[in-house]
Amino acid sequence: MSSEEALVLDPWGTSHVKDYDRLMKQFGIEPLTQELAKRLPYQHRLIRRRVIFGHRDLGNIIQAIENGNEYAVMTGIKPSGEFHLGTKLTSEEFIYFLSLSPRARGFFAIADLEAYADNKIPLEESYRIALSNLMDMLALGLDPKRVYVYRQSEEIPVLHLAFIFSRSVTYNTLEAIYGPRPFGLYLSALVQAGDILNPQLPHHGGPKPTLVPVGADQDPHIRLTRDLATKYSEEFGFVPPAATYHRLLRDLTGQEKMSKRNPMGILYLNEPLESAKAKVMNAFTGGRATAEEQRRLGGEPEKCVVFAELLSAHFLEDDKLLEEWYWDCKTGRILCGECKARAWEVIGSWLKAHQEKRSRMRDLADRLLKEKTLK
Ligand code: TRP
Ligand code: SF4
Questions:
Q1: Is the CB of 80 under 6 A from ligand 1?
Q2: Assigned domain for 195 exists
Q3: pLDDT in tens, 292-316
Q4: What is the pLDDT of residues 83-130, one digit of tens each?
Q5: Tally of structural domains, the chain
Q6: Which of 213, 248, 283 is the last residue of a domain?
Q7: pTM of the shown model
Q8: 265, 331, 235: which is closest to 86 by C-alpha?
Q9: 331: CA distance to ligand 1 center in Å?
Q10: SS (H, E, C) 278-304
Q11: Ligand closest in space to the Cα of 288
Q12: Which of 38, 71, 85, 180 has the maximal Cβ count within 10 Å?
């Protein structure tokens, strides 16, 4: 194929995006401009640092915030394992967009059907993992009073929507979006469309702007759902969902594609501090071949996982400190060994505090999972 070959995003695989501008052009994702971001009540670290790079219809959500109108923030997590930096990202976005207005309502899908279809995880095991995941979300700051939590396998209205949508989606459409796939994954995609439009059903108050914060690889689902929302707008009054997109970050070893087969690459939020430390101290850096060279030329923070992923995207809130850190590296004032030890102080204390908070969340998570909503 030519260099103009169309990009295919694989929401179930390990997508890697080389060129975000091209991605946005091809699929019609809008860049998140400063002009739009300025209208947010405050800008989250992930927006300030450009981890969130694009959106669809975010303007509608901002308008709802400005006018004090109701909107939904919707996300789902496939309970296929413990929380790591990737799931942290989506959860932080969810919590952030929910915090921007007292009229925002959260909807959180536990994608146990998808976990079964994609990873063959039995539903009971999903429940156990979901409980643990929910403890992390609560520790990250999710307000349990503002969210509706459900399991796909038990949420009849969502399953009904998936069935209704199946009426107007042909095999050819699905194949064009996702490539040839087992029917279980196609079904999961329809269920996810049901998840995303669930907040707009009459028993949740009817049509409303709905924001779905996702990684770039989930865009195929967003496109499908926006299409379905339009197709069924007469019947249900659906507003096509808005979305924000974050970059797909590298793993700790610098691999573009995260893989569970590379355990040194993934930092889990509840892992023992000793092993977390070992992973940070082994992370891929932008250091030079020798200390002498690094003092002379400086390091390359842009290429460095410790700087770009761990500090900038995840753990260092303070913009001024981050900038100082950048120049310490860039000018060769600091070498990687010392730098990683400093970074570990920041990361380790974050993890320790998180793990303490999380350990107190079990009962609350359990209640939320059983009762779906707490008043
Ligand atoms: N497919 C998502 C994942 O793999 C999970 C998911 C299910 C989801 N339903 C959703 C994400 C609705 C956003 C909105 O993690
Ligand atoms: Fe990365 Fe720090 Fe080394 Fe710079 S000094 S390349 S920021 S580890």
A1: no
A2: yes
A3: 999 999 999 999 999 999 999 999 9
A4: 999 999 999 999 999 999 999 999 999 999 999 999 999 999 999 999
A5: 2
A6: 248
A7: 0.96
A8: 265
A9: 42
A10: HHHHCCCCCCCCCHHHHHHHCCCHHHC
A11: 2
A12: 71
